[in-house]
């Protein structure tokens, strides 16, 4: 079945933006506040819509039209954003967000460029069979890597794991993070696998870059006690990841 494309005069049902207002390149972030922060980096910016967690802006970056959209926390809700952007004609989507480091040297303040994602989310398995890979577009990944290196921060690249659970339960084990660490996974986050799968189904380019805001394996119980994503070291990494995403979008 061919991917759905909406007419130019259509309004996206949940993003509530008009298709004709979308650029062909989009930066997506989880937090609506972060979307507003990105909007401040654009020229000729205007807000297209604000519905639920989905806040959408239009502007230009170094003369190139850009759409910015927030998608909230978790793959299921984020998939709505990714799907509607693809249906609206966006051909390149980069996600910039925060993630937890999984390797001992991937620590607070570092940047991770994802080459692919382990599909431990719930939504991608309802779109394609389990053996289907979730991978980023190689050329876009290289552009993100080069842009991130310009930040002067510690940059890593590799496979991330996408899970649905943020706070662990003491009843049942969720994603087996120690196992994925042994497999070489570099970070854990909550939306990339859905983005990569949806982009593949629509035949569009995609990538993801993350600011590391902690390491869930540093605490033996993985309880997330003491988690604080608002420290200065994380803010610098967030800014570096956002700039890298914008630079790669227009490369």
Automatic annotation (TrEMBL):
The chain positions of domain Nucleoside phosphorylase read 25-238
What highest taxon heads this organism's lineage?
Bacteria
Gene Ontology process terms (BP): nucleoside metabolic process
Its EC number is 2.4.2.3
Q: What class of enzyme is it?
A: transferase
Cellular component aspect of the GO annotation: cytosol
GO terms for MF: uridine phosphorylase activity
Q: Quote the protein name from its UniProt record.
A: Uridine phosphorylase
């Amino acid at each position: 079945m061919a991917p759905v494309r909406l007419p130019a005069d259509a309004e996206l049902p949940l993003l509530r933006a008009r298709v004709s207002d979308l650029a062909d390149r989009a930066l997506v972030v989880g937090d609506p506040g972060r979307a507003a922060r990105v909007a401040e980096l654009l020229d000729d910016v205007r807000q297209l819509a604000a519905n639920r967690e989905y806040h959408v802006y239009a502007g230009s970056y170094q003369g190139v039209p850009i759409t910015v959209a927030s998608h909230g926390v978790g793959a299921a809700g984020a998939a709505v954003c990714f799907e509607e952007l693809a249906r609206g004609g966006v051909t390149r989507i980069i996600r910039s967000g925060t993630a937890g480091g999984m390797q001992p040297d991937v620590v607070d303040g570092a940047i991770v460029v994802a080459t692919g994602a382990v599909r431990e989310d719930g939504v991608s398995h309802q779109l394609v069979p389990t053996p289907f890979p979730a991978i980023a577009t190689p050329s876009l990944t290289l552009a993100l890597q080069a842009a991130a290196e310009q930040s002067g921060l510690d940059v890593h690249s590799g496979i991330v794991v996408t899970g649905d659970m943020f706070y662990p339960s003491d009843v049942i084990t969720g994603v087996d993070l120690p196992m994925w660490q042994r497999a070489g996974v570099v970070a854990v986050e909550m939306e990339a696998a859905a983005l990569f799968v949806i982009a593949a189904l629509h035949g569009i380019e995609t990538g993801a870059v993350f600011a590391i805001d902690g390491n869930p394996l540093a605490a033996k119980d993985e309880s997330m006690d003491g988690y604080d994503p608002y420290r200065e070291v994380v803010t610098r990494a967030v800014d570096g990841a956002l700039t890298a995403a914008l630079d790669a979008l227009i490369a």
